[in-house]
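Below: protein 1.
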Amino acid sequence: MEFQSVNKLLEKSFKENWERDALSNYQGTTLKYKEVAERIELLHIAFAKCGLKKGDKVALCSRNQAHWGVCFLAATTYGAVPVPILHEFKPENIHYLVNHSDAKVFFVDEVIWQGLSEAEMPGLEVIVQMNTLNYIYARHEDLVTVRKNLMHTFSQMYPEGLKPEHLNYYEDSADELALINYTSGTSGFSKGVMIPYRALWCNIRFAGETAEPQMNCESEVVAMLPSAHMYGMMFEFLFEMTIGAHVHFLTRTPSPKVIMKAFSEIHPDIIIAVPLIIEKVYKSQVKPAVDRHKSLMRIPIVDQVIQKKICNSMIEAFGGRFEEVILGGAAFNPEVENFLRKIHFPFTVGYGMTECAPLITYAKWWKTRKGSCGMPITGCEVRIDSKNPYKEPGEIQIKGENVFLGYYKNPQATKSSFTNDNWFKTGDIGVIDYDGYLYLRGRSKCMILGPSGQNIYPEELEAVINNVTYVVESLVVEDDGGLTALIYPDYHQGELDGLSGEELEARINGSLPEINKLLPSYAQIRKIEFMPEDFERTPKRSIKRYLYQR
């Protein structure tokens, strides 16, 4: 299918779904498509009066909320370039990214603004409080006048109110810059990924035709991943807006308790998640039930009955209406994956990167293969830089409509990210089978060279360590010729179980011989060190590995 303008797709969706619910704050306000369109139009008027040009940058920084969606859509449908910034970044990072992106307008959550200063962002023309759309700062007095007269200007332009036929959104072209997405990545510092409209279209088309063709204007979605990151932005928000679906933003920290409550009330049609969420549910709810029925699960037929019961209860816990759970953003724990496959829970693991907006490979849950993250999406080619890509791991390289334009104001990083024949070098290691299914083996920059030249992929060791009771997350690093496991333990759960911090650490330390039994001889963990708090993470919740290298 030929490229279609993403903004014109949005325009069509808004016109057709005018009276339907569009964006909700979970347990808060709901905006219909017509109300979102009115707010977009108000912002378009303000943009024009303030002199914002097509291609100018508009930064956004807030927790997930309906007005984040409004401001993002207002920027792109005007022809400006949105720059979503993760609200969890430190103030100095936010200042830096706003400046680096050359943003002229900045939409910001009132809570985040408390740590920021307009003096640190001298290039901005105007700063807008996202929740209310009121100005926090304007460089010139006439910009303040624009805001004061905005409702009056709108009423003059649309005396009978905004109608669907009034919508005429900016028509984008395939290779035009759509947005800049900053990602620190797990192995380096922030780079501004320049994503073209063809990459957005490639992902939207694949979602509508292949991944989720059953979704339509009656579908409900819970947005729990950060909207500032491509994975959540694309599959919990942008695709949904093009088909007239209803997005419910979780406006608070998405703890498993909050997420499961939202699922039970909203009954989403699709669930987009990172493995950590499923792993937490498995550890806290499923594994205890499995352990209780261990003896019964050795009996043929009875074990199938119990497995079906566990599967049904999990489906019900996730809202009962979804077709599949799509996991991405990090490696999936093999023990959890094996169990979910055994009980036929409908889940699939995809693979993507911000640089591909984000999807690279995917397969429907009934077509998945153990340990694989699917096949290349339509419009995307994958190759393995290896003499034998079927058996010998090599770097995963990508070519296609979904590949980014380069890194903003960083030609050197752009050049080093592409091969001489213009394939994008992902930095990830994998193999591919004869049917085209991709299997990840780790990140090339994380790979540790073993004592006799063996390739050690720390993610594989961490998957074993993370199965130990009271381990929340682990990171394996090379340390003076050996391997050290940095562990962030669940001190809170230990306390509930009557263990002091020292007793909990002693228990985890005591499991080291058992851990090493499951690891190859060249990849033995020499010692464990405990982290007093969680690891620092990227927008997609991966650990910033480079911060912990010895």
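Below: protein 2.
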Amino acid sequence: MSETAKVETRQFDTEVHQLLKLMINALYSNREIFLRELISNASDASDKLRFEALTNEALKGLDQDLGIDLQFDAEKGSLVVSDRGIGMNRDEVVSNLGTIARSGTRQFLESLTGDQKKDASLIGQFGVGFYSSFIVADRVTVETRRADEPADQGVRWVSAGDGEYRLESIEREQHGTTITLELRDEHKDLLNRWQLERIIRHYSNHIAFPIRLIEAGKDEESNTVNDSQALWARPKSDLEDSDYEEFYSSLTADPEKPLSWAHHHVEGSQRYSLLLYLPGQAPFDMLINRDEREGVKLYIQRVFIMDAAEQVVPRYLRFMRGVVDSADLPLNISREILQDSPLVKKIRATVVKRSLDLIEKLAKEGGERWNRFWKAFGPILKEGVIEDFEQRERIASLLRFASTHEDSEGESVGLDDYIERMGEEGDTIWYLTADSLKVAQNSPHLEAFRKRGIEVLLLTDRIDEWLVSHLDEYKGKQLKSVARGKLDLGDETDEPDEASKELAGRIKQALGEAVGNVQPGTRLTESPGCIVAEEAGMTLQMQKMLRQAGQDVPETKPDLEINAGHPLLKAMAAVKDEKRFGELSRLLLDQALLAEGGELADPAAYVRRVNELLVEALTAAGNGHEDGGDGQHAASS
């Protein structure tokens, strides 16, 4: 090589300068990404040397003691990343570091044919990310020598990311690559052991090669930072339960042991690994924060990329924990956004299947572990009925609800349990939604069902109103609300007599626009009245939920069903004073609303009515005693 060729300054390829500015200023959202990229490149180079050494005699023995060294100097403001991998010659440096849109590793993989591709599966496809160095550095120096070339064929590449770079031939005894970053002042806070160890463990903890951290002037304190054993990449036969539990603890920082886990390897043209855990407890904000899916971490070739996106883990499984690792997942150029592809869909389907397998197994076993899971994650799993049409019935089979069935003894029951008890002649799964279990258990809507021995499921989670709006049948059985429309329990019921109809009309007239319709019915045996929603109308619970969420709710008028045989209704029928009758009618409507957990438009007016009635009753009772009676007069009055 001539003297003039040894040192030269070159411009980046056309428009590369603009692209470089984009990468530095906009492409990466987190400055720490640069270290992940440099370590990944070093890992790729080491893998590449190991692979080429299988067929290249000149490389025999050079693939031993591979590792990645990081040396930082806080005083000088520098960070040095070194590897003893394959290295690059001058032409490769120009090709790979002079063109942003090219990756040396990717080109290497594309050059392989036949079985070599399978053998090279451990070699990553990083390379472009080298330019993320300029996020933190105002000057980057690369010194490298390809492992199968002599020491005088070393190359130095230097750039300030300003549109040009300098190339220089150098003597370099060690093969591999050394990258020196001179950090800008605002990023020198990264140059301390705690920061660097934290970044390494977060992104690169499972790189297959040891990563050693060295502080300048303290070489004796060099130590390996990462755990190069990626548990999910190991054969299941090599692992004990304690291995899985320890990894779960390190992955999640959860002091509780996982309830169960699934370890799955997929081989073939598309290779990936899954390690999924069912946790034993939920973070406090999991129900509220539906977009949080930090539990399943996405890796490419054991390099952490992101917390799994919705394309991989659906919202209703956001409680799952674990790892997805693949060599082939398509990312955007910054590898911060997962792009859609058949492989992504396949991995998502596998995550869903394996997660539901775990939950089904736990449900079948029952007992304390299942109860813990359902209490922590049941309301979240219910979202799957709404969001995942393909898995709707499978998810529905896992749902559990409180029930009026006397043998349930407070235990939740599934839809299959209900169907089994109803027998072949049954065609309806009856349910009641309410704000709480106590409100549901005391609802007047249950009276007719208790009288006939018909089981009713009690749905008290906030999600349940949405759930039943998307699940109108299960295994051919209709789901129906006991509080909607006309009640048909399949038995003979007497038509309301004229007196009952007349009383209902009189109440309707007294209530006016406060009520939609008033009618006598067969729902009630003990209560005087109840609120009934239209067949396709909005329940009181749904209206309440929407208001609490800040939504506009259309003004609706509740329908009132009365029990004409109740003593209160009989007494009202005898009241001649229309003002008094109107007050009693309003009180009847308010009581029915309260019994269903509804909200009164004017609570103060309700209290006033009750107080007035109490005063009148007590006054009448007192007058009876003043008359010298023995109590019989007061009772009759």
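The chain has a mean pLDDT of 83.
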